[in-house]
Amino acid sequence: xxxxxxKKEINxxxxxxxxxxxxxxxxxxxxxxxxxxxxxxxxFALLVRVAVSLHPYSGAGSPPKFGDYEAQxxxxxxxxxxxxxxxxxxxxGNDLSYWGLDYPPLTAYQSYFHGLFLRFFDPDSVSLxxxxxxxxxxxxxxxxxTVLSSDTLIFFPAIFYFAFVYHSSCxxxxxxxxxxxxxxxxxxxxxxxxxxxxxxxxxxxLGLTVAAIxxxxxxxxxxxxxxxxxxxxHKQMSVYYAPxxxxxxxxxxxxxxxPIHGVAKLGLTVLGTFTVVWWPYLHSTDALLGVLSRxxxxxxxxxxxxxxxxxxxxxxxxxWKRLFSVHSLKFISLTATVLTCLPSMVQQxxxxxxxxxxxxxxxxxFAFYLFSxxxxxxxxxxxxxxxxxxxxxxxxxxKWLMFYGLFSMFPLLCRDKLVLPYxxxxxxxxxxxxxxxxxxxxxxxxxxxxxxxxxxxxxxTFMNGFIYLSSFILHIVYLTMHPPEKFPYLFEAIIMLICFxxxxxLAFYTNVKQWSLLEHSTTEEEKKLI
Amino acid sequence: MESSxxxxxxxxxxxxxxxxxxxxxxxxxxxxxEVHRHWxxxxxSLPLSNWYADETSPWTLDYPPFxxxxxxxxxxxxxxIDPQIVDLHNGLNYRANSAIYFLRISVxxxxxxxxxxxxxxxxxxxxxxxxxxWVLIVWSPALxxxxxxxxxxNGFLLGWLLLSISFLQEGKDLMGGFLFAVLLxxxxxxxxxxxVYFVYLLRHYCWKGLFRGFSRLSVLGAVxxxxxxxAYGPFLYHGQIQQVFNRxxxxxxxxxxxxxxxNFWVFYIILDKVFSFFLKKFGFSIQIPAASFTGGLVxxxxxxxxxxxxxxxxxxxxxxxxxxxxxxxxxxxxxxxMVARWIAYAYTCGFLFGWHVHEKxxxxxxxxxxxxxxxxxxxxxxxxMLSIVSxxxxxxxxxxxxxxxxxxxxLLLHSILMWLGFSTKFTRASAPNTMVTAKKKGAQSKSIxxxxxxxxxxxxxxxxxxxSYLLGLLLVEIWGQFLHPYLLGDKFPFxxxxxxxxxxxxxxxxxxxxxxxxxxxxx
Lengths: 530, 523
Known about the structure:
Chain A is mainly alpha-helical. Chain A is 68% helix and 0% strand.
């Protein structure tokens, strides 16, 4: 009761009645503390995931190549039946041209364990060669359950760890905010659609990353670097976050009495973790290079399909693939990526702070998404994760990014026949975002420094309506109309253009936002968040 | 202003549920799906006079005429979506996506009627209680399992019942009676509560002196007769009325449904088994009957070895006997605030002692009881147990692996929400609370006062009996799902189901006794 009174005093300006009603809507959900709230929301999130997993997966019933589902199943087959050293190598038992393993070893180990699970219940589903294109009711069920269990065992606890750290350190966060934030983190529609609809295991690498972030927020840097190394060894895409981790940890070490000691400790942790995970391939350079070359499929070109990044969008005008060789494109894209990462890295080295770190994660993953080599639509999950971690501070940009992130994956999900879950999850997200008496656009956290970006707001309101409307129409057009024969990918291209434009704007905004953190005295920052 | 925001909140709760229900569209559905699809085709392609005579499919129309009209109404849209859905012959066992989507979405939309019922019932309740009732009804796991997975239209029908209760609670008896009559013409299984309605309306509405009473009785009678005439008149005109009743009351079915509903007869059957087992041991010659309890024609042979056989009229007498305390209370002290309890009690009795009861019928009392569940600590404790037990007893409906996590998570989520909601409501220091709510709604403060002494006693806890019962539920589930197939393989496949219904029958019996005690003790 005392807490409640305090809260009332804090919120003096807010209408007392409103506070009363606000508390009443969710009082029962939040009053038992963060654990009970988390339990409740996570059971709901799990239910939603199971419901999505009823739907088709990518490449269902489409021989000969099928889709990501078949790829994952094939990896289980390979890892289960072949010795470790053959996993990444072309051999009589392993045809790399048919969904060869192209993720780091941790994914291979995970496939191995899931393969054991599958073999226990349904040996046919993972037998060598004969199981290709294996699609049965039980097989699908078991595969879906492997994702569900990975999600429950890795992503959920990581989010709990993060929410616990973030909200116990956060001064002004009300219980309702905390519940809302957890819901936003656990019911991320993009992640659910890709993992439980399309079929992938992003929850593992993203979960490890979240755990690493939470560890950093709670000042456990060694644990953080170990966890992030694991994330990297699960999916090379986690490298999108590497600049942020690197610069934040470096910045922190530099401020210690003995910077070299700190850097060495972190470096040894990272190397040690890598050594353990990559051990089977460290015996010969050939083996190691073989694995590494599998991880970086440069031959697939700078972009595939229609991804809303710089290269693909600008290729409408400049034909990158024709103008430059793969080698020079590699160099160009690397330079562009590093250049766009650089501002946020510099900021973190200069003034490492928890809040700045979260912005840094967002900025570096945006930089990679927009400018790096071989980006996939699904990679929008990576910027989305730090955006959802920052959801309480950046409410509207978060919603914005989620909206266009979903939209950019719409053609992909249409191909997977996931239109119904797409719309259902989209609606669910919007409903939760605008939960009654929750947050929905009420600028409660309007900070004085926001006034500086007024031009941004006015510009946004000018364009927002138009773009929301056109994207809504595009959804319908995409579903109901056939593109002209001359431009079979016209709609995809338009979607890509709109999304790229939004992502670029957001990336610019978050970069500015991160730099504006410098203007505050750093000591205040430190006090606020940790 | 406040009511509009509360409607918006209720719609929000509903919309969340809709999202989940939409996601569940591709899930398993039972033969009831084909039943309802066939009824769409039947009512669409045949003239009214043939609705109850048709035998194209084994799934003949066996709901009352209003439900048939409802199907006719839906079939108009179905015809636009995909004409094959409503094709009497080509549509048989039609399972294209269009049919699945159309029927599933029609259930989701028909739930709006339930929403309206809930909205009307809770419009005067204070915020906290209202939210809890919404969670209990709009997010009811049992409704999701029965309506949106198994496939039926219970939400829509329960909407009528809740509407009727809301009118009765406001003292608008005529309207309440009218709505109940309409409900009966949608689904006659709801008739179990008719005696309670009759006694209550007679006493509360008509018992007002000789002249006024008589005129009211005739008005009420006229309304009810008009409703029934509207429903059955056309069939009377076509000379089909006998056929309609034959279809609606198929007494050829057995005492229990294929899967025994967790009711009193489970104990009876088991007692019979035990007796015959022991008598045989002691050397008596007992003939084990070939007939089963679930099917077969009544009157041919008794399915019981030792105990006397049960006829439909026996069950009727038992139901009426069980209802008699309720009649006495309703007659001596007819209070609008008790109506929901009485009606729920009537359905409980019907469930426990009725003939050929289906486990889905537990919805008929679990949903109305949600209204009173938040009134006091005792109610909350009782509802917590009942709701879990009744929801669990529905598990065998969804027996496929794909839906297994769904039903478990639904029950788990429901239990957590109930536990959070009830424990918060009944432990929060009530002094400032009462002030706020009393300020807002003077009328509602009574129950808050009644809850505050309970809060002092320690709030919402489940005693060791309840805890061990719930633990037992878990053990029954583990046995049925994992240990039984592992240890015994395919032997005794009926044991897990029998265990579930027996075990749940204890819970439902407890609920019946609890409700009976409450009804007797309140004045």
